[in-house]
C-alpha cells in the first residue's frame, strides 16, 4: 500500500482542521440558538397569559359570569368559531390555546383545542409540559387573581419543532454543501502552493550527470530555501566525491601501468633467457619493479585513506609528539639505509591536537620521506615539533637542492616530481601532505632553508586547548637527537 502524497495529506489535514473547528462551533451555536428560541417562546407564552389576564380584569368577573349565565353555559371557543388563520400551510391558531377558570375551578373561557385539559391544581403555577390528544403542549399558568381567576395559556411543540428543524437546516446544510466546494478549493490551493516542489523535482530529474550548476528557483518560498541550500551542498559534496573517485581511478590506472608493464617485460625476459645470469638479472629487475609497484600502491592507498577519514565528527584528541615518535620508529630502516643524518627535536610534555591519526602520520611520514629523497648522500634532515603560542608547529629542514620560489606552488600537484630527487618517488608525497593539512585546518609553507640551500617545510596546526595556552609560552624543544 503506497503512502499518501503530500498534497493529499495537506488537503485532508486542512479539511480536518476546518471541520474540527467549525463543527463544534456549529453545534454550540445551534444549541445556544435553540435555547434562545425556547426562552423566547416561553416569554411569548407568558406575555399572552398576562395580556389575557389584563383583558379579563378590564371586563370584570361579574360581567363575564353574567354573560355565561345568560347563555345558560360557558361557550368554549373552538377553532371553527375563531376561523383559524392559515399561513404558508400552517394552522397557527390550532397550535395555541388558553383557559380561564373561576375560584371553584369552573371554566369561564377556554379554546376548543384545550377543552379536555383539566383545570390546574392548587399551587400549579409557572411552566410545565403535558401530553394531550397526541401532542405535547407547553403550559404557562398564572397565580390566581384577587377574584380567584386563573389564566393558563398553552402552545403545542409543533411550532417549536418547526423552528428547530429550520435552524438545523440553516446550520447544517451550508457546511454540507460548502465542504465539497471547500475541498476542491483547498486542493487547488495546495497544488498551487506546492508548485515549487514540482519545479524542484523537474530540475532534479533533468539535471545532467556531473553538473555543478546550483539549483535555483525564482521566488522560492522561504521554507524551501534551506532545502535548496542543503541540496546544493550535498550535490556539491557528491560531485567532489565522484571527482575524487574518478581522479583516483585515473591516478591508479596511470601510475600502475608502467611498473606492471616493466614487471611483465622482466618476467618474459627471464622466461625467454637461456643464460642463468641474464635470467637472474631480469628477475632482480622484476623484483625491483614489484617493490616500486608496492610503494606506489601504498601511497595511492594513503591518499584514499585520507579521503575516507576526512569527516569532521571522526576527529579525536591525540598527542602529536606521540604520532611523530611512531613515524620516526617506523622509518628507522629507511633512515639507516639512506646515508642521511636525521636530527629530531621534540617539545617537552604533550602537544594535543584534534585530528585523524592516519592523516597526521601520513603528513609526517611523507615530509620525512620527501626530504630524505631530495638530499644527497651524507646530507642532513632536521625534524622539529614544537609549540608556538596556540599552535603546534612541524618543521622539516633539509640541505638538498631545494625548490625555487616560482615552482613551489606546483609541487603540491599529484605526480609532480622535481628534477634531482634521489630514490623512487612518484610525486604524491607533498600532495598527501597538503590534503592532510587541509583536513586539519593547518597552514603549510615552503620556505628557504637556513643552511643556505635546501628547503624548509613549515606546518602549523591549532592546538585542541589553545585557549588554555598563554601567549608567552616558551618555545624550547628538547635538544636535537641525531639518527643515521
Explain what this protein looks like in three dimensions.
The chain has 484 residues and is an alpha+beta fold. It folds into three domains: 6-166, 2-Layer Sandwich (Beta-Lactamase); 226-305, Helix Hairpins (Orthogonal Bundle); 313-483, Heat Shock Protein 90. It has ten helices and 15 strands. Strands 13-14-12-11-9-15 form a six-stranded mixed beta sheet. It has a five-stranded antiparallel beta sheet with strand order 4-3-7-6-5. Strands 1-2 form a two-stranded antiparallel sheet. A hairpin with a 2-residue loop joins strand 1 and strand 2 (90-91). Helix 9 (357-373) packs antiparallel against helix 10. It is rod-shaped. The model is unreliable at 69-79, 81-90, 419-427 and 470-482 (pLDDT under 50).
Amino acid at each position: 500500500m503506497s503512502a499518501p502524497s503530500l498534497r493529499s495529506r495537506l488537503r485532508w489535514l486542512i479539511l480536518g482542521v476546518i471541520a474540527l473547528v467549525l463543527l463544534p462551533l456549529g453545534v454550540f451555536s445551534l444549541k445556544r440558538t435553540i435555547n434562545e428560541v425556547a426562552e423566547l417562546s416561553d416569554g411569548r407564552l407568558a406575555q399572552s397569559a398576562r395580556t389575557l389576564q389584563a383583558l379579563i380584569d378590564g371586563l370584570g368577573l361579574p360581567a363575564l359570569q353574567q354573560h355565561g349565565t345568560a347563555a345558560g353555559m360557558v361557550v368554549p371557543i373552538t377553532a371553527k368559531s375563531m376561523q383559524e388563520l392559515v399561513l404558508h400551510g400552517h394552522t397557527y391558531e390550532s397550535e395555541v390555546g388558553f383557559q380561564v377558570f373561576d375560584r371553584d375551578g369552573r371554566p369561564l373561557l377556554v379554546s376548543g383545542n384545550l377543552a379536555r385539559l383539566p383545570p390546574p391544581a392548587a399551587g400549579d403555577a409557572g411552566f410545565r409540559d403535558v401530553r394531550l390528544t397526541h401532542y405535547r403542549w407547553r403550559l404557562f399558568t398564572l397565580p390566581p387573581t384577587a377574584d380567584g381567576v386563573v389564566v393558563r395559556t398553552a402552545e403545542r411543540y409543533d411550532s417549536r419543532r418547526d423552528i428547530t428543524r429550520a435552524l438545523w437546516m440553516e446550520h447544517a446544510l451550508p457546511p454540507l454543501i460548502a465542504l465539497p466546494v471547500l475541498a476542491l478549493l483547498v486542493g487547488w490551493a495546495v497544488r498551487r502552493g506546492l508548485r515549487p516542489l514540482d519545479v524542484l523535482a523537474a530540475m532534479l530529474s533533468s539535471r545532467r550527470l556531473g553538473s555543478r550548476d546550483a539549483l535555483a528557483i525564482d521566488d522560492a518560498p522561504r521554507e524551501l530555501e534551506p532545502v535548496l541550500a542543503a541540496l546544493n551542498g550535498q550535490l556539491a559534496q557528491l560531485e567532489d566525491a565522484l571527482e575524487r573517485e574518478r581522479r583516483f581511478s585515473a591516478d591508479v590506472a596511470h601510475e600502475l601501468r608502467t611498473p606492471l608493464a616493466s614487471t611483465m617485460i622482466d618476467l618474459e625476459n627471464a622466461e625467454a633467457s637461456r643464460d642463468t645470469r641474464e635470467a637472474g638479472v631480469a628477475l632482480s629487475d622484476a623484483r625491483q619493479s614489484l617493490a616500486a609497484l608496492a610503494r606506489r600502491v601504498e601511497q595511492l592507498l594513503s591518499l584514499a585513506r585520507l579521503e575516507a577519514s576526512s569527516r569532521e565528527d571522526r576527529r579525536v584528541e591525540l598527542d602529536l609528539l606521540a604520532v611523530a615518535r611512531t613515524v620516526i620508529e617506523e622509518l628507522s630502516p629507511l633512515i639507516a639505509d639512506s646515508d642521511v643524518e636525521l636530527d629530531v627535536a621534540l617539545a617537552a610534555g604533550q602537544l594535543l591536537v584534534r585530528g585523524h591519526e592516519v592523516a597526521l602520520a601520513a603528513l609526517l611520514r611523507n615530509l620525512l620521506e620527501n626530504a630524505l629523497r631530495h638530499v644527497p648522500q651524507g646530507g642532513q634532515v632536521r625534524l622539529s615539533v614544537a609549540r608556538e603560542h596556540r599552535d603546534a608547529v612541524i618543521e622539516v629542514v633539509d640541505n638538498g637542492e631545494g625548490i625555487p620560489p616560482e615552482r613551489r606552488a606546483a609541487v603540491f600537484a599529484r605526480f609532480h616530481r622535481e628534477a634531482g630527487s634521489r630514490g623512487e618517488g612518484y610525486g604524491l608525497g607533498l600532495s598527501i601532505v597538503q590534503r592532510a593539512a587541509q583536513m586539519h585546518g593547518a597552514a603549510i609553507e615552503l620556505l628557504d632553508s637556513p643552511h643556505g640551500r635546501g628547503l624548509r617545510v613549515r606546518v602549523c596546526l591549532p592546538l585542541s586547548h589553545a585557549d588554555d595556552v598563554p601567549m608567552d609560552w616558551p618555545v624550547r624543544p628538547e635538544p636535537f637527537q641525531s639518527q643515521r
